[in-house]
Amino acid sequence: MEKQHVLELFKLKGKNPQIECNFRMSDNEFPKTLDPERIRYLKSLNPELESSLGPKCDLNLPYICDNCLHRVLHGKFSSWTSGNELIDSFIQETQLFSPYERYPEWVPHNSLSQIKKIGEGGFGTVFSAMWSWGIKSSLEEEDKYDKTRKNVYHYRTGPCTVALKKLKGEMEFTQTFLLEVQAQFDFCHLYGITQDPSTLEYMFIMRFAPQGDLRRYLLRNFDNLTLPNKLGIAQTICAELEKIHAKGWVHGDLHSGNILLLNEENAFISDFGMCRPTDTVEAKDKVYGVISYIAPEIIRGNPYSQAGDIYSLGILLWELACGIIAFADRSHDVNLILDICDGLRPQTCHYSPLVYNDIIKVCWDPDPSKRPSASEILISIERLCKFRRSRDDFGYPNSEYLIEISGDFFKDYQSGFFDPDYDLIKYSDSEIHQQLKIAHKACRIYIKMKWKPNKPIHSEAVYTSRSFSYKSLQDEIDILLVKSNRSSIVG
Boundaries of each Protein kinase domain copy (predicted)? Predict the structure, then answer.
């Protein structure tokens, strides 16, 4: 994307002086809900901007409509640069078309402090940092003269902790880099981009997850997680994946190290280094990811797909239920790859609801066409999540409510989300209710006992993403097959 293209986009949007101001202020006061100290703070945060605004926007206060804001931002394009035309063009285009809270910024590195390394993945290194600017936000208040209109005011939160992702050197200035930037903007909270002055490497500024990744969170907190907690995390993961798939993209590298936790029931997907629109994904000479999460058809050389993401989601849901990592007791080598392609899956979690286990199993179907969509899984998990609001004052399930919920859940399966011959159909309403009740009690017992799964991890089990050559894999598999007299189910 060239800078001239961005300027043309702005002309199309309406740089005409007659552009409509879509903001209406009844007076020049801050909303009455703000205390005087907050008002003084918000006033102090306003940048020194120059632009002719619409007659109802006031730059001296944080009241400005998106149309006028885009004019202001356009007027400041010449006052900053990232040093890279591709990055400049991306930021400028998103600033011209995005609302206040959504557009990313070019952020001077000196506004970031207390930078600490917190993790490293296949595509880059992640740090935490204190951002002095703070995150953009807005609030609405009903117009006291026109009840059909709302006044919107913009502000920043003040200094806050953010995450920084520094991309590996080979990722920069490539199509891969641009795809990850776009994916971060579309599916995650991309606050801005900055540059490390010592290394000249670019860094994303993103939402910080105080609870870390799902894998480490389960190791620390599994003995405190209730069934509602687990279902809440499952729901948010499914919702995030559904959003990615609904826009026609594939994540391509789902595993518990890429799921970040805000709190005990809210998670989001991160690391979009492999994320692609489905119509641009092609079969390659390498497979990338964590072996235990990679769908067998991808190991065989098929391109990454949304069905492949669903397989990975099934492993994630299993890990969330059991509290342990899939295939932790064995080496992640060609033997494991061969066994996965031959149908090996993790053992069923016996203290999870059978309904939940069945959702997991259908995600693992060896035939990608028989796996459910992300939206189908989300609807099913949401049904189970109603269980969280069905307990009485003593923490015990409300049986009548559960029967009602399980009945709705059962009808959803009957309506065709899955194959009508699928095993779940054999469950009656009361059986599903009983499954939820037993699983809830099991979690309560484990919490009281402070019990955690204690399964040692094999020294050659690898849970960070890595790449494998199809040719070298096939050569190793052929040697193994000759030794074991097995037929190939990989190539």
Answer: 112-384
Lookup result for tokens 């102090």: 44
In the chain, domain spans: 3-206, 214-468
Instruction: Report which secondary-structure segment, H or E, holds 358.
Output: helix 354-363
214-468 architecture in CATH?
Answer: Orthogonal Bundle (1.10)
Q: If you search the block for the tokens 């993103």, which residue do you land on?
A: 206
- Report how far apart, in Å, the C-alpha atoms of 205 and of each of 98, 131, 163, 173, 410 are: 17, 9, 6, 17, 43
Span 327-386, pLDDT tens digits: 999 998 888 988 998 899 999 888 888 889 999 999 999 999 999 999 999 988 887 776
Query: Any idea which residue has 């809830």 for tokens?
Result: 440
Query: Computed over its alpha carbons, how large is the radius of gyration of the chain?
Result: 26
- Name the average pLDDT for the chain: 75
| Most confidently modeled range among 2-6, 257-261, 405-409 | 257-261
Same fold, 3-206 and 214-468: no
pLDDT value of residue 40: 47
Superfamily name and number for 3-206:
Phosphorylase Kinase; domain 1 (3.30.200.20)
User: Could you say which DSSP state residue 462 is in?
Assistant: -
Q: What is the pLDDT of residue 174?
A: 58
Q: What distances in angstroms separate CA 285 from CA 108, 300, 304, 423, 471, one per listed residue?
A: 39, 11, 12, 38, 7
CB 387 within 8 A of CB 436: yes
First to last CA, the chain: 39
Q: What is the DSSP letter of 131?
A: E
Long-range contacts of 85-90 (CB under 8 A, 24+ apart): 85/2, 85/3, 86/1, 86/173, 86/177, 86/178, 87/181, 87/193, 87/202, 88/3, 89/1, 89/2, 89/3, 89/5, 89/6, 90/1, 90/178, 90/181, 90/182, 90/185
Per-residue pLDDT tens digits for 312-327: 999 999 999 999 899 9
How much is the average pLDDT of 14-34? 36
Phi, psi of 480 (to 5 degrees): -65, -40
Does the pTM of the predicted model rise above 0.70?
yes
**Alpha-carbon dihedral angle through residues 262, 267, 272, 274, given to the nearest 10 degrees:** 150
CB atoms within 10 A of CB 206: 21
The residue type of 231 is L
3-state secondary structure of 219: helix
340 close to 299: Cβ distance less than 8 angstroms: yes
- Give the total residue count for the chain: 491
Alpha helix segments (H runs only) across 386-428:
399-412
Q: b vs e for 322-352, b when ≥16 Cβ sit within 10 Å of the residue's Cβ?
A: bbbbbbbeeebebebbbebbeeebbeebeeb
- Looking at this protein, which amino acid is placed at residue 342? D
